[in-house]
Automatic annotation (TrEMBL):
GO MF entries: L-amino acid transmembrane transporter activity
Membrane topology: Multi-pass membrane protein
Keyword terms of this UniProt record: Membrane, Transmembrane, Transmembrane helix
Compartments, as annotated in UniProt: Membrane
Protein name according to UniProt: Amino acid transporter
UniProt main location, coarse: membrane
Any single GO CC term annotated in Swiss-Prot or TrEMBL for this entry: membrane
Highest taxon, organism lineage: Bacteria
Alphabetized Pfam families for the sequence: AA_permease_2
Transmembrane segments: 40-63, 84-113, 125-143, 150-176, 196-217, 229-251, 279-304, 325-342, 348-371, 383-407, 413-429
Length: 447
């Protein structure tokens, strides 16, 4: 049962923003400043990362307009190449692609809260807070789609307001550090260095989520018109916020104090607002992660629901409650998240799964060339701006990242590939079951 589209462009854009703004932007700067000393070069990292993400969003907007169905890469890759390619992409998304980031955000939230209240890093409250936050958000996502959309817009708006407050007060109140954002030969030298390349990999992870709206495409009203607006506007807003936020971090806090530290947001908050207000801002950062948990909780089960509509082995997950919510898929993802939180194994999963998730997005963006060559019909509302250069730029940067990850992290990357290929066993099992039942399983066409 497919729910009636009830989500407007604001809620779809909120999904994009909430998926992108997570813990990464508040933590990664501390490791960038170890090797990159020029503030302008660091800001260039975030601008370049944002432009690459925007190139991907421009392409996904056209692909989504051509194939308006929930499921993200699962549905698109099935349509562009072959159902088995889509199945493997969907399998990895269902297994950990969404559950691991939810677990990461929940644990980060609980870490902030327990440290602020002086409960200690190993406090048993950490696990309870993390699981409780995910459970609360999961229950909220059982209600009507309109209410879920309003909730997502609300919590995302609060997060954006938090970031804006950080930026405005940082430039207005903080004592400026003795640094310069002016160009010098050192800037170009650092931008061409291997340290810059390594940092760009992690910046791109912070931008991941720019494609989030395609996972709930069936629930978006007038997707051919609203999806491009949501993807492009959401990604553009985050690129601006990320660049300004990192400028504030550099402007307000000593680089020597941030170097090698993960709690960059907390360090900057103390310098901007003082010790007491800095603690309050840390609390707001923690609660701001609710929007990330909510966005992933919304998107992930829709992939499993769409796969359930196409494959017998996942048929139970196609079921929806009276509000059109795939409740079994929702609680299945909740169970995986709880396991990752309790086992604390999500960090290792995120490392080795990064390669396969990037590969999935790479194949999807490359698919724009396949689709245009095969289908001469153009979407009514949107064509990729800057084609063919925008997809080529994305493929060049992402392809370089894949080669770099395979070279630097061969074990994790190969294990990630092995995990994806294990999904092939499920695909073959499904084909065997379908054959025995005398049914022909095919991926549903768009519309």
């Amino acid at each position: 049962m497919t729910s009636k589209p009830a989500i407007g462009v604001s809620a779809a854009a909120a999904i994009v923003v909430a998926n992108m703004i997570g813990t990464g932007v508040f933590t990664s700067l501390g490791y960038q400043v170890i090797a990159i000393k020029s503030p302008l070069a660091i800001l260039a990292l975030w601008v370049i990362g944002g432009l690459v993400a925007l190139c991907g969003a421009l392409v996904y907007a056209e692909l989504g307009a051509r194939m308006p169905r929930s499921g993200g890469e699962y549905h698109m890759l099935s349509q562009i190449y072959h159902p088995v390619i889509g199945f493997l992409a969907g399998f990895i998304s269902v297994a950990v692609g969404f559950a691991a980031p939810v677990a990461a955000a929940a644990i980060a939230m609980s870490t902030y809260l327990t440290s602020v209240f002086g409960l200690g890093a190993n406090s048993p409250w950490m696990t309870g807070v993390a699981v409780g936050a995910v459970l609360a958000v999961t229950l909220i996502h059982l209600v009507s789609l309109r209410t879920i959309g309003l909730f997502q817009v609300l919590v995302t708006s609060l997060k954006v307001i938090l970031v804006l407050l950080f930026i405005l007060f940082g430039f207005a109140v903080a004592a400026p550090q003795p640094i310069s954002f002016d160009y010098s030969p050192q800037v170009l030298q650092e931008m061409l260095s291997s340290d810059f390349a390594v940092s760009l990999v992690y910046v791109m992870y912070a931008y991941s989520g720019w494609n989030a709206a395609v996972y709930i495409l069936s629930e978006i009203r007038q997707p051919q018109r609203n999806l491009p607006v949501a993807l492009i506007s959401g990604t553009s807003v985050v690129m601006l916020l990320y660049t300004l936020l990192n400028a504030v971090f550099l402007y307000s806090a000593p680089i020597s104090e941030m170097a090698g530290q993960t709690e960059v947001g907390y360090i900057a908050a103390r310098h901007i607002f003082g010790e007491t207000a800095g603690v309050a801002m840390s609390l707001l950062i923690a609660f701001g992660l609710i929007s990330t948990i909510s966005a992933m909780t919304w998107a992930g089960p829709r992939v499993l629901q769409t796969m359930g509509e196409d494959y017998m082995i996942f048929a139970a997950f196609r079921r929806a409650n009276g509000n059109g919510v795939p409740y079994l898929a929702l609680f299945f993802q909740f169970a995986i998240v709880c396991y990752l939180i309790l086992s604390s194994s999500f960090e290792a999963i995120l490392i080795y799964i990064g390669f396969t998730l990037s590969l999935s997005v790479f194949l999807t963006v490359a698919g724009i060339f396949v689709v245009r060559a095969r289908d001469q019909q153009r979407p009514l509302h949107y064509l990729t701006w800057g084609y063919p250069w925008t997809p080529l730029i994305f493929l060049l940067i992402t392809g370089w990242m894949l080669v770099f990850l395979l070279w630097e992290k061969p074990v994790e990357s190969l294990v990630g590939l092995a995990t994806v290929l294990s999904g092939l066993l499920l695909y073959l099992w499904n084909q065997r079951i379908s054959s025995r039942a005398g049914q022909t399983v095919a991926v549903a066409a768009a519309d």
